Amino acid sequence: MPIDPPARFGEIIAEIDRAIEDRLNEPSFPQLLTDSIRHAALGAGKRLRPALTLLTCEAVGGDRSRAISPAIAVELIHAFSLVHDDLPALDNDELRRGEPTVHVRFGEATAILAGDAMMSMAFGLLAETPCEHPGMATALVQELAQATNRMIAGQVLDTVGGGDENADPLAQVRLIHEQKTGALLRASCRMGAIAADADDAALDAITTFGESIGLMFQIVDDLIDVEQHESHTGKKTGKDHEAGKLTYPSVLGVQGARDEANRLRDEAAGALSHLGERSRTLQELTAYLACRTK
Amino acid sequence: MPIDPPARFGEIIAEIDRAIEDRLNEPSFPQLLTDSIRHAALGAGKRLRPALTLLTCEAVGGDRSRAISPAIAVELIHAFSLVHDDLPALDNDELRRGEPTVHVRFGEATAILAGDAMMSMAFGLLAETPCEHPGMATALVQELAQATNRMIAGQVLDTVGGGDENADPLAQVRLIHEQKTGALLRASCRMGAIAADADDAALDAITTFGESIGLMFQIVDDLIDVEQHESHTGKKTGKDHEAGKLTYPSVLGVQGARDEANRLRDEAAGALSHLGERSRTLQELTAYLACRTK
C-alpha cells in the first residue's frame, strides 16, 4: 500500500503554489484581505483538487499549462469553503491543518469577506483560461458554478439540516458526501479535461473517475476521523461521532466503509484504463488516496 | 424634479423578478436555502442594477433579452453582498427594506451559505448568456469578478479598516464609495453593453455613464442617511454619523455633496447624449436617481 503521494506530486504542488502566490498580488485589495487569503490558500493543505485538474488535463492528452487557471480556481473555491465552514456560526473550528483558522487569526468579519473574495477571484480566473471557442469558457464557468452550488447545498444539509430524514441512512450520507465533497472533486477532474478540449469519450471516462474518487475521498476522510489521532492529522478527529453525524463507518461499520472505498478505488482506476501511460500519475494518486491516513 | 422612477421601470422590474423567480427553482437546493435566497433577492428592493444592465443593452442598440442573464447575475451579487454585510460580525443590521434581515429570519449559518450560493448562482448564470464569440463570455465573467472583488475590498476598508488614513478625507471616502458601490453599478452598465456586443465608442460612453451614476448614487445615499427618517426609507438612517464614518456630506457639507451629485448627474447624461432616443429611459432614470429620497 502506498504511504506517500506519487513522486511527481511535489513538483505539481510547487507549480500550483507559485501560481496561487502570483494571483495574490491583486492590486486593489487591502493588505489585510491579501494576508487572510494567503493564510487560507497557501497553508499546509494537500492541493489535491488543483493537482487533479492538472493531471486530468495531461491524462486526456492536453498540455497542463492550459489548465492552470481552472486549477487555481478550484483550489480557491475549496479554500473559501473551509474558511466559511470553520466560522463560529457553522462548524466553529479553531484549528485547521495545525494552524489557527482564518477567523481566529484575522477576525470574523475579515474571514467572511476573505471567503467571498476567494470565490469571486476563482471565477475571474476562469476568464483567463485560453479558450478556442465560446463553448469552452462557458463550460468551465458552468462546471465550477454547479459544483459550488452543490457543495453549498451539501453544507446546508450537513450543518443546518433540511434533508429527507426518513430516507435510508446510507442514501442520506451518500447524498451529503456527493454534494459537500464529491461535487467539487468531480468538477476538478472535469475542468482539466474541458481545458484540454477532450472528446466526449474521454470526458465521460474522467467524469466516472471523478465521481468515484470524490466519494472514495470522503469515505476515507470518515475513516480517518474514526481511526486516527489529532496529533497525526493536524485537525480535530472524532468530531463526527461527537456531533452524532451520519458517516460511512457509522452506517456500514469500519470494514464495510473500507470495502466500499476499495470498490470505488477500483472503479476509478478502471475508468482511466484506456487512457494508458498518460494517466499513470493519476493512477498512483488514486492508490495513495485510497489508503491515506491524513 | 422627478419624484418617481420612469414609467417603463415597472414593466422592466416585473420582467427581472419573473426571471429571478425562475432561477430559484434550483432543484439541488434544500428548501431552506431556496427560501432564504428568495427572501434576500425578491424583497422590496429597487432592482436598479439589473434595470441598468437591460437599459444599457437597449441604449447601445441590443435587444434587452440578450442581457437578462447578466442582469440577474448583478442583482444576485448585490443581494449576496447585502446578506453578508448585514451579518452580526459586519454591520449587524436587523432590518433591511422594512423586513427582518436574512440572518434574523433564517439564522446566521443559513445567511452565510445563502450569500455564498447567490454568488455562485450569479456566475453560473453568465454561462447562459448567448455568446457569439469566446471574448464575450470571458469579458462578462471578468467584468463581474473584478467588480465583486472591488466591492469586497471596499467593504473591508469600510468595516474593518486598513485604508490610508493619512490620505485626504475626500480621496478616502471617494475610494470607498467607488469600490463598495460604484464598481458593481459600473459593471451593471458595462455588462449590458458587452451583452449587446457594443463597439468600443459605445462601451466607453457607457463606462463613463456607469462611473458617474455609480458615485452619484452613493453620494445621494449619504444625503438620504442625513436628511431622511427611517419611517420614510424602511431602513435605519443616521447610521453613518453614529458610526463616525466619512461621507460626502461630512466632508463637503450637505450643499457641497448635493452640488457634486448634480455635477455627476450632468456628466452621466452627457455621456449618453450621442446615443439618442434609445437611451431615453436611461436619461429619465438618471434624473430620478439624482433626487430620489429613498
Largest interface (C-beta under 8 Å): A-B, 56 and 56 residues
Question: What is the CATH C level class of chain A, in words?
Answer: Mainly Alpha
Biggest sheet statistics of chain A? 2 strands, antiparallel
How does the overall form of chain A come out from the CA principal axes?
A: globular
Number of contiguous helices of chain A: 13
- The CATH topology of chain A corresponds to Farnesyl Diphosphate Synthase
Describe the structure.
2 copies of one chain form a homodimer. Chain A has 294 residues and is mainly alpha-helical. The first copy, chain A, has one domain (9-291): Farnesyl Diphosphate Synthase (Orthogonal Bundle), CATH 1.10.600. Helices cover 70% and strands 1% of the residues of chain A. Chain A is built from 13 helices and 2 strands, in the order H-H-H-H-E-E-H-H-H-H-H-H-H-H-H. A two-stranded antiparallel sheet of chain A has the order 1-2. The radius of gyration of chain A is 18 Å and the shape is globular. At the A-B interface, helix 2, helix 6 and helix 7 of A face helix 2, helix 6 and helix 7 of B.
Supply the key terms:
homodimer; 294 residues; mainly alpha; Farnesyl Diphosphate Synthase; 13 helices; 70% helix; 1% strand; globular
